[in-house]
Write a sequence for this structure.
């Protein structure tokens, strides 16, 4: 579903934020994208969603090249940025309708999805007021609702759990599992190892823009016998 | 004090558009922008100078002294309170840096003082130029002197202090008194609407002034019979003091400075007592706790086309964001005021009677002039409201959103240009109807369907074509170097040089059209000139659209 082939991104001809990165994410998988601060996670995700152009390499979503067939590729993506402060002057329901129009979601379908998300996240009381008055967590939840309104094949999340309370985080993790179980894939960045451990089928670890590990966590533990995940992670990203 | 200076430096820094890369081109950009800004404002300064000069001559004749200059300065002061208030409220209370500043060990008067100074420095170029106009106009009438020049320089630099201090005091007190109301975002709307009302009020007052007579005016202000002047002298006591200083009284000049210092002291004292309480919880908007309300809202959901939905979103944000509302929507209300002034002048001096007469008689050359006027005004209106020329800058951090949604950038550019087209175009249609109506009223009905029906219709079409040009081209200009990094909505527009550069470029293009058709008017005939003018603006509109959609799209794709 997601294909990265030899992707490199250099900022201002000096900072190599992503360096010859290649990986795959397949149907039904939840993949955690792990790396320390400044390792290039957000940059990778921005290239994947078409916000940034890679300097080298190819990126495809559902076999659509993000450069050559951007609209087709983007239609299959649901994306949650690392900052949910977006269009705060719109009411939650206005924002969701706007997004639904963009992804051409029929009225009866969107109504059902709005209601379902409201119930699940407890947003029912505030959907008809401006998002300016939402807490960080509420804004994040609206972004989740917006990203899923067209039931995308590929769900991409940048640091999704920051600022969510335990119940909402639990709900979000469940939603990610369900989404993957329904034949889609989920790709999210995090630096919280425990989350990756509980949630992911596979992890991709990068450091300074370079791939350092790609595979299951079990396999990773086997490779480094006798060490905790934390120790392995620190070791891998030490340089 | 050092805290104050550090804060001020930071505030000024964030409005600059100089990230490390491409420093040279940015510097060039801002120099160009400043130069063009000056060019646009100089005519306004000159006009104010001339009015002051003419009125001062009449007043001096009647045995008065600085009364005319006082009145002009009072009007400028009123305008700067009206326009400054919204800016001050936003910068003091609704800007995004507040949440970061409050936890720091800063005293309230340091924050407020730095924010006040910042507003004073960044918002007052216009007032600065107008004040130069007044001082120069007065001294041309009364004669130059050394104290006059020194006093003028002091005055030009310091005269905005008191009006802005008023804005500061009012906003601090208002926010203090309403601190228990949770959602004070409505205050922004209230002040926006209040400003609009004041402008409309001014409009009505102006239309009421039908028998303005410079001599009677001079006599009444000289004898102290002008209620307006007497009241304003109390509200803005620094202005008569300043003018008296310019007239030679050093004592009054010193008192003038004293009054300003006092105003600042009072303002800072009030701020130190009331600011913190007023600013806390300011961004907690009201959240309705109504389940059935939400269910109803969900059930009202409708499916719209992508373009329509995008346009709707643009309008909602323009109208709901106070800074955008002021600078992009409310600013259009200045035009009716401007046209009303012209009509009043016409009522006084009949300077346009010849124009109207030959236009109503179907004189082709006059029709050409009016048409060129329609083109020029359409373009200026679209450029000044900056809906198009800040269309990308307004997105700020949301720019990424434009890139990741599955909507062609062309469609998004269309949507943004259409918003500008609707606002500016609808204004133009109203003004053209008003103009023709006025002509028919003053001149009487003519039995020429070309003049009574065809020309208004044609002018509307031409106006719309001109607005298309200005909208698409303005939007294109903003794709070249949009200002995407800003903390506050106000900064997306003010200090955004794209707006000025765009104004200059579209004006130059339209100026070219005018020159070409006026030359043709001389060389061949007015009919040809008119046809060519219409053809040229149409070509410009089509080209503007092409450039915006093709090159503009490329520009956006290359932004990182
Ligand atoms: N627009 C930009 N211009 C220049 N350099 C950039 C830009 N965006 C990111 N970088 C640089 O690219 C590198 C990777 O940044 P990125 O935001 O991808 O990291 P990250 O893994 O998401 O970090 P975090 O965990 O803090 O979110 C950093 O060195 C950063 O300074
Ligand atoms: Mg990041």
């Amino acid at each position: 579903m997601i294909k990265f082939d030899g992707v490199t991104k250099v900022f201002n001809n000096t900072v190599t934020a992503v360096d010859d990165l290649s990986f795959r994410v397949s149907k039904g998988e939840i993949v955690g994208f792990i790396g320390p601060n400044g390792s290039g996670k957000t940059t990778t995700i921005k290239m994947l969603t078409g916000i940034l152009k890679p300097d080298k390499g190819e990126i495809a979503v559902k076999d659509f090249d993000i450069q050559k067939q951007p609209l087709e590729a983007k239609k299959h993506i649901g994306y949650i940025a690392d900052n949910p402060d977006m269009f705060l002057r719109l009411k939650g329901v206005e924002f969701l309708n706007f997004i639904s129009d963009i992804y051409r979601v029929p009225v009866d379908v969107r109504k059902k999805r709005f209601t379902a998300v409201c119930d699940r996240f407890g947003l029912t009381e505030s959907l008809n007021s401006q998002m300016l008055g939402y807490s960080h967590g509420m804004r994040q939840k609206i972004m989740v609702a917006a990203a899923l309104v067209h039931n995308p094949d590929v769900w991409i999340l940048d640091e999704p759990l920051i600022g969510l309370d335990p119940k909402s985080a639990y709900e979000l993790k469940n939603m990610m599992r369900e989404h993957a179980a329904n034949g889609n894939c989920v790709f999210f960045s995090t630096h919280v190892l425990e989350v990756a451990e509980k949630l992911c089928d596979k992890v991709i670890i990068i450091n300074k823009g370079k791939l350092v590990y790609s595979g299951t966590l079990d396999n990773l533990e086997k490779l480094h016998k006798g060490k905790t995940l934390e120790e392995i992670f620190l070791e891998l990203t030490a340089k | 004090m050092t805290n104050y200076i550090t804060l001020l430096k930071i505030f000024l820094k964030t409005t600059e558009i100089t990230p490390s890369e491409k420093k040279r081109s940015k510097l060039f950009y801002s120099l160009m922008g400043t130069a063009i800004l000056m060019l646009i404002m100089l005519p306004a300064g000159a006009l104010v100078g001339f009015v002051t000069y003419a009125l001062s001559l009449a007043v001096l004749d009647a045995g008065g002294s600085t009364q005319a200059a006082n009145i002009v300065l009072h009007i400028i002061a009123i305008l700067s309170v009206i326009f400054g208030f919204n800016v001050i409220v936003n910068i003091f209370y609704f800007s995004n840096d507040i949440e970061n500043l409050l936890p720091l060990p800063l005293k309230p008067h340091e924050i407020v003082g730095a924010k006040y100074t910042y507003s004073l420095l960044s918002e007052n170029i216009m007032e600065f130029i107008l004040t130069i106009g007044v001082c120069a106009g007065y001294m041309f009438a009364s004669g130059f002197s050394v104290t006059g020049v020194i006093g003028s320089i002091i005055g030009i630099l310091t005269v905005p202090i008191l009006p802005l201090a008023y804005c500061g005091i009012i906003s601090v007190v208002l926010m203090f008194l309403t601190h228990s109301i949770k959602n004070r975002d409505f205050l922004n709307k209230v002040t926006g609407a209040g400003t609009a009302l004041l402008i409309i009020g001014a409009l009505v007052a102006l239309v009421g002034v039908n028998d303005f007579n410079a001599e009677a005016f001079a006599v009444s202000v000289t004898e102290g019979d002008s209620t307006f002047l007497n009241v304003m002298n109390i509200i803005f006591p620094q202005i008569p003091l300043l003018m008296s200083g310019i007239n030679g009284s050093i004592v009054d000049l010193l008192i003038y400075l004293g009054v300003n210092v006092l105003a600042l002291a009072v303002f800072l004292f009030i701020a130190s007592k009331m600011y913190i309480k007023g600013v806390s919880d300011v961004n907690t908007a009201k959240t309705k706790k109504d389940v059935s309300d939400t269910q109803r809202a969900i059930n009202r959901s409708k499916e719209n086309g992508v373009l329509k939905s995008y346009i709707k979103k643009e309008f909602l944000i323009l109208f709901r964001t106070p800074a955008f509302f002021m600078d992009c929507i409310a600013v259009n209300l200045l035009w009716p005021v401007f046209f009303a002034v012209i009509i009043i002048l016409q009522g006084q001096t009949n300077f346009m009677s010849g124009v109207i007469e030959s236009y109503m008689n179907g004189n082709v050359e006059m029709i050409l002039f009016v048409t060129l006027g329609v083109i020029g005004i359409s373009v200026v209106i679209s450029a000044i409201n900056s809906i198009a020329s800040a269309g990308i800058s307004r997105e700020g951090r949301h720019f990424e959103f434009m890139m990741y949604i599955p909507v062609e950038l062309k469609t998004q550019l269309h949507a943004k240009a259409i918003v500008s087209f609707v606002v500016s175009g609808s204004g133009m249609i109203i003004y053209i109807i008003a103009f023709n109506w006025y002509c028919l009223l003053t001149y009487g009905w003519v039995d020429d369907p070309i003049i009574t029906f065809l020309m208004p219709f044609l002018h509307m079409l031409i106006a719309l074509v001109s607005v298309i040009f200005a909208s698409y081209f303005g939007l294109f200009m903003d794709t070249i170097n949009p200002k995407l990094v800003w903390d506050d909505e106000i900064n997306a527009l003010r200090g955004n040089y794209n707006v000025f550069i765009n104004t200059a470029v579209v004006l130059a293009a339209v100026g070219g059209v005018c020159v070409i058709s006026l030359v043709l008017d001389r060389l061949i005939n007015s009919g040809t000139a008119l046809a060519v003018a219409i053809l040229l603006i149409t070509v410009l509109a089509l080209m503007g659209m092409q450039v915006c959609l093709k090159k503009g799209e490329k520009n956006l794709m290359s932004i990182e």
Q: What stands out?
A: The CA atoms of residues 300 and 541 of chain B lie 39 Å apart. The two ends of chain B are 39 Å apart (CA to CA). Residues 306-557 of chain B form one domain. Chain B has 25 helices and no strands.
